[in-house]
Amino acid sequence: MTKIQLIPSLRQEIRQRIRQRRRQLTPAEQHLCAERAAERMLTYQPVVDASTVAVFLSFDGELDTTPLIRALWKAGKSVYLPVLHPFSKGNLLFLRYHQNSHLVMNRLKILEPELDVRNVLPLDRLDVLIAPLVAFDEQGQRLGMGGGFYDRTLQNWQQHGLWPVGLAHDCQHVAALPAEQWDIPLPAVVTPSRIWEW
Ligand SMILES: Nc1nc2c(c(=O)[nH]1)N(C=O)[C@@H](CNc1ccc(C(=O)N[C@@H](CCC(=O)O)C(=O)O)cc1)CN2
Ligand SMILES: Nc1ncnc2c1ncn2[C@@H]1O[C@H](COP(=O)(O)OP(=O)(O)OP(=O)(O)O)[C@@H](O)[C@H]1O
């Protein structure tokens, strides 16, 4: 019983600390990091080979994906964004994102494309999923915002033939995260300064 209560609180503490750390980056640092990470992501082989790539729209000090999305469009990739599933709680849908897509604010205060089933891409047809995260560790374990959205999406990712890669600031790296049984480790994380691979 004690373990059930202690582990989540440690995860919560790490979440708060790292979220604060990334929010403290200056606009100039954020700008430079975003450019460098976009350049690096475009050289990452699974992305070079991909036709369909899911990204996310940044908030809360996350690495700004604006330059990355522009670069993906320019390279001719189809770009998708996560949308909170309207009925299936804790699940995400991935919708096509064009230059002129209509965006709406969701209940978690993140912009997402307006739901239109014609724009939904099944996971089986997604080549690369660029995942947001709050913290990642030496082994590729990932800690997110706490909704379990990406843990659910990444369940059995190998069977979908999709390749996940985290995107984060260098300051989001920690030595070790307390893992839960549902946590799905990432095979790679791109930061402004390097590509981590496991
Ligand atoms: N950019 C981005 N998009 C994403 C994610 C993410 O981590 N980053 N997600 C990754 O899973 C999903 C959203 N997950 C989230 C989970 C919890 C909270 C959250 O607790 N937000 C507020 C409180 C909510 C409120 O104001 O009602 C907070 O900042 O504390 C936000 C997003 C899907 N889209
Ligand atoms: N595959 C799953 N199936 C059902 N519930 C899950 C699954 N993965 C996670 N959950 C539930 O989601 C909740 C949040 O999980 P966790 O704190 O690990 O999220 P996170 O990794 O921080 O968030 P996210 O993946 O959205 O970025 C937990 O209570 C967990 O029970």
Task: Compute the number of structural domains.
Answer: 1
Record the strand order, biggest sheet: 3-2-1-6-9-10-11
Helix content: 25-40%
Number of helices: 6
How much of the residues is beta strand, in percent?
15-25%
Shape: globular
Question: What fold name stands as the CATH topology?
Answer: Rossmann fold
Q: Element order, helices and strands?
A: HHHEHEEEEEEEHHEEE
Q: Quaternary status of these chains?
A: single chain
User: What characterizes the major β-sheet?
Assistant: 7 strands, mixed
Cα-based radius of gyration, to the nearest Å: 16 Å
CATH-wise, what's the superfamily? NagB/RpiA/CoA transferase-like
Which regions are unreliable across 5 or more consecutive residues at pLDDT < 50? none
Average pLDDT figure: 95
Heteromolecules bound: the ligand Nc1nc2c(c(=O)[nH]1)N(C=O)[C@@H](CNc1ccc(C(=O)N[C@@H](CCC(=O)O)C(=O)O)cc1)CN2, adenosine-5'-triphosphate
CATH architecture label name = 3-Layer(aba) Sandwich
Strand count: 11
The CATH class, by name, is Alpha Beta
Query: End-to-end span in angstroms?
Result: 33 Å
Structural category is: alpha/beta
